[in-house]
């Protein structure tokens, strides 16, 4: 991940005292080197000079007017504490360790910086034809991590599809405003979304989902450990929200980098089988999950198509792929 070095943290900055007393209480005269993390203007890395360790600070704007965005960012600290309480705090599966927060200065959470390779590194290696085995192994580990997260938070409730439907509508609406799809296409997507969400096979138990299961949000350390980061979008939903997002991200990654819409299929299938095999009845679980996956893959492809840094023709290609998922899935 590219970072921009900004110098050292001033002793008079109120953040200095917060980090010194709460994150590094045993370090005398700490010195923090500050780097802005790529693409995140309000996410910074603070490397302590003596210990050679780092923390990540995530901030919110004190004048933030969007209450939904504000609540989401502020909620990450609580989400991390909750998941670690559920047991995702040690080898081999964990979420990043939160250290402190201080809302008076806009600090939503300070958390440990995790060294390791993210899933995107393994995908790039597989696209280059020399990392197929490594990616398959990483996906098996990720499948096990997600299954652990979902099972430890499962309950008796049924996942509410209204929130998923509203999210789908917001994505389609933004793509229309951006001109990536026209009004007629938007109406078609909304009709298909309603058709999917009203299908009986979409009824599923409610679990905690990561909510932003993109390749850069899972860090692999050593041969076994998986650490999840960026939990601000965690919510209760259908487990396939996460599973389908991983599949959609794999489809996009190989289509974007290799130009081949089929290259991701062996990895998607292996990931789905790896997730399903952890159930008491793997074949039954696989059938139920793969029935619901196309909708969430389409949701993910439409979500990615909103990114204006992607080529215009490719963004339209992603919406076509999403339509294929909805129609043929």
- Strand proportion: 15-25%
- Tell me the distance between the termini: 35 Å
Tell me which CATH architecture of the largest domain applies here: Alpha-Beta Complex
User: What CATH first level of the largest domain would be assigned?
Assistant: Alpha Beta
Largest sheet: 6 strands, antiparallel
Strand order of the largest sheet: 1-2-3-4-8-7
* Uncertain stretches: none
Layout of helices and strands, plus pairs?
Blueprint: E1 3-8, H1 14-23, E2 32-37, E3 43-48, E4 54-59, H2 67-74, H3 76-85, E5 89-90, E6 93-95, E7 98-102, E8 107-112, E9 117-118, H4 119-127, H5 132-152, H6 161-178, H7 183-197, E10 206-209, E11 218-221, E12 225-228, E13 235-238, H8 240-258, H9 265-276, H10 282-305, H11 312-328
Parallel strand pairs: 6-12
Antiparallel strand pairs: 1-2, 2-3, 3-4, 4-8, 5-6, 7-8, 9-11, 10-13, 11-12
Helix pairs in contact: 4-5, 4-8, 5-9, 6-7, 6-10, 8-9, 8-10, 9-10, 10-11
Task: Spell out the key features of this protein.
329 residues; 6-stranded antiparallel sheet; Aminoglycoside 3'-phosphotransferase, Chain: A, domain 2; globular; 2 domains; 13 strands; alpha+beta
General description of the model:
- With 329 residues, the chain is of the alpha+beta class.
- Helix content is 50%, strand content 18%.
- It is built from eleven helices and 13 strands.
- The protein has helices at 14-23, 67-74, 76-85, 119-127, 132-152, 161-178, 183-197, 240-258, 265-276, 282-305, 312-328, and strands at residues 3-8, 32-37, 43-48, 54-59, 89-90, 93-95, 98-102, 107-112, 117-118, 206-209, 218-221, 225-228, 235-238.
- A hairpin with a 5-residue loop joins strand 2 (32-37) and strand 3 (43-48).
- The longest helix has 24 residues, at 282-305.
- The model has no long low-confidence stretch (mean pLDDT 95).
């Amino acid at each position: 991940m590219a970072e921009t070095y900004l110098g050292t943290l001033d002793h008079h900055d109120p953040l200095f005292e917060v980090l010194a007393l709460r994150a590094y209480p045993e370090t005398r005269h700490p010195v923090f080197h500050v780097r802005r993390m790529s693409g995140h203007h309000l996410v910074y890395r603070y490397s302590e000079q003596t210990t050679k360790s780092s923390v990540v600070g995530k901030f919110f704007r004190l004048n933030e007017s969007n209450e939904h965005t504000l609540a989401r960012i502020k909620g990450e600290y609580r989400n991390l504490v909750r998941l670690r309480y559920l047991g995702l705090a040690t080898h081999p599966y964990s979420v990043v360790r939160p250290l402190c927060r201080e809302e008076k200065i806009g600090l939503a959470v300070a958390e440990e910086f995790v060294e390791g390779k993210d899933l995107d590194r393994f995908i790039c290696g597989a696209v280059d034809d020399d990392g197929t085995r490594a990616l398959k192994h990483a996906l098996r580990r990720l499948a096990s991590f997600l299954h652990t997260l979902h099972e430890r938070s499962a309950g008796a409730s049924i996942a509410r599809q209204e929130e998923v439907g509203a999210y789908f509508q917001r994505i389609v609406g933004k793509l229309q405003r951006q001109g990536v799809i026209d009004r007629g296409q938007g109406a078609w997507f909304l009709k298909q979304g309603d058709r999917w969400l009203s299908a009986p096979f979409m009824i599923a138990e409610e679990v905690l989902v990561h909510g932003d299961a993109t390749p850069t949000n899972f860090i692999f350390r050593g041969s076994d450990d998986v650490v999840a980061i960026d939990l601000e979008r965690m919510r209760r939903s259908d487990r396939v929200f996460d599973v389908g997002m991983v599949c959609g991200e794999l489809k996009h990654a190989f289509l974007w980098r290799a130009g081949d819409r089929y290259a991701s299929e062996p990895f998607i299938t292996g990931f789905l089988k790896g997730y399903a095999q952890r159930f008491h009845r793997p074949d039954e679980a696989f059938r139920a999950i793969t029935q619901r996956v196309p909708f969430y893959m389409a949701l993910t492809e439409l979500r990615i198509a909103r990114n204006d840094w992607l080529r215009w023709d490719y963004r339209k290609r992603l919406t076509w792929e999403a339509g294929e998922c909805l129609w043929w899935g």
